[in-house]
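User: What would this chain look like folded?
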Amino acid sequence: MPYKRSMTGKGLFKKYEYIYDEYYDCYLCPNNEVLSYSTTDKNGYESYKSNPDKCKECPLRDQCTKKKNS
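Assistant: Here's the prediction, encoded as structure tokens.
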């Protein structure tokens, strides 16, 4: 299997900086907020989403996403 570089942009958190909690099936962001399971796409990739209300005020938001809306 060939080496594949990280898909995250410059200045954003890497995937390994998010902690997966097997018991609750969720991720914890670097600011210790929960990213809950959302859906599985047709390719088998699972999506996890954050609470937009908590992300609006997060001091680390610029390092998580470049999206304008939370």
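The first strand starts at residue 19 and ends at 21. If you want, I can go into more detail on any region.
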